Amino acid sequence: MTSSGWRMPLLALVFSGGIGVCTPLQAAEMTPPRGEGLPSVAHLEFIYDDRFAEAERRKLQAWMTEVVGALRVLVGPLPMDVRFRFARYEGAGPVPWANTLRGRRQGVRFYVDPTQPVEAFRKDWTAPHELSHLVLPFLGREHAWFSEGFASFMQYRVMRVMGVLDDEAMAARYSERLETAAAAYSQPNRRFVEAVPQLRAEGLYPTIYWGGASYFLEMEERLKRQGVSLLGVLSDYLACCRRNEDELEDLVAKLDALAGSTTLSQGLNGFRRVVGFPPHRHLQALAPR
Fold first, then answer.
1. What confidence score (pLDDT) does residue 42 get?
2. pTM for the predicted model, two decimal places
3. Which domains does the chain show, CATH number per domain?
């Protein structure tokens, strides 16, 4: 059950060999925040690169369907077919690794331990993170702080819709991740955005991710003070513009146009000047709602 008390419908699936051909995900019960003009159907495709038992496939499909449905509740349906590839990787938790697939057919490749119980998959943040990447276009390695920051910003919201986290637990997760990332920041005299290549070289990926997430938490708060929902803006973006491939500045300009302000562009310019790990302790988004 989700936190709203309803259960998301599962896909009916028919398989041929190793490729899953699925019927559309019917979303009549899952109303997006600003649903006018949004398509009502998303197609999911499941591909298995290793041998999986039928029960294991059903488990993975149910998990993916729930995550996609939760993301839809937050920002509306993804305006493209989504492909999931699965490979076995046992003994290191439910999802040891995953990466987003870009190109003509977008999706996510997961390395999974299908012997894990379904609840272990639901409590793992990897799928909410990777699916959230598909809300925005690929922006290039040089803007990884923005892309990974966005996916990190979204992941616990998705898990909240799934009913895995409540408001208090979600707030605690954000606070913990930001504090840990800030403590690990190793370039206190450099601008955060300029320090990202060095942070990557040092393997401080969570610091990059959660430093970037602080931009979105800040923008969410600024827009909220103007009576605008960031998630609503993202819903409008998916409906009108996601199929285009944008540069970072063009993407932010489109989001601003949908928000009716220059908040995101001004915030981006300011964020690029931040020295040290970005400020975050003041954000109201970290308080339980």
1. 62
2. 0.84
3. 13-133 (no CATH), 141-286 (1.10.390)
